[in-house]
């Protein structure tokens, strides 16, 4: 049975992705910043008959927590097949470039960027032991430099300098990671789940967590001939999914 670790999976997009991968026969390590919320989420899934789920407490912005989670998982398994770096935060809007503080940038980068670096590096050895490892970095079309600078794009006037910078940085990290792992069986991709209704945007999103979970799960389950080093958004490009970096 393949295994997957999903960060920030106690609710919203991460939780739904966990549900869909459980339905696909994966064993899910449900990452949760607080143990209590993670245990509740796992109980919910078990009550739906999805029993191959275990909670892993992990605050991605806290390197001690990441190390402890790695040690805990290492006591259970030697092989991890999939890592989904889903945990993320917006930092609250608006974030005008001339007004958002560097402290606000640091706080969001701690989770959206540095957290992904710490988690990926902590779990890479377990992933290397898989015959077909997959890393999905949950990004956003708002992290596209090209779209952000396009007057025709809906986010052109969006004052999201902190969040958008963090996802642009995450995208660059994805490119670097895919490059370093290019001669291995790894597939590493950045996936935009779409603008979906969650706590993240006070449920103003127009899509559903089900759609988002399906988009992410697809890249978690890629075959050997699947892409690596891509940035996809089915919301922006329903045909191929690819959007400009
Ligand atoms: P959400 O409803 O706010 O849920 C975020 C999840 O991440 C929660 O489980 C939260 O845990 C967790 N989290 C935040 N900081 C964390 C940390 N330091 N360590 C561990 N977990 C942490 O957001 P969402 O809509 O599901 O978003 C999930 C991902 O999709 C994010 O990366 C977001 O940027 C991306 N995304 C979302 C949308 C959208 O429209 N919703 C669009 C594009 C991209 P707590 O419950 O403990 O707070």
List keywords for this structure.
245 residues; alpha/beta; Rossmann fold; 7 helices; binds NADP nicotinamide-adenine-dinucleotide phosphate
Walk me through the structure.
The chain has 245 residues and is an alpha/beta fold. It has a single domain, classed as Rossmann fold (3-Layer(aba) Sandwich), CATH 3.40.50. It is built from 7 helices and 7 strands. The chain has a 7-stranded parallel β-sheet, with helices on both faces. Helix 4 links the parallel strand 4 and strand 5. Helix 3 runs parallel beside helix 4 and helix 4 runs parallel beside helix 6. NADP nicotinamide-adenine-dinucleotide phosphate (NAP) binds next to helix 1 and helix 4.
| Count of domains | 1
Strand content: 5-15%
| CATH-defined topology | Rossmann fold
- N-to-C SSE series? EHEHEHEHEHHEHE
Rg measurement, Å? 17 Å
Largest sheet: 7 strands, parallel
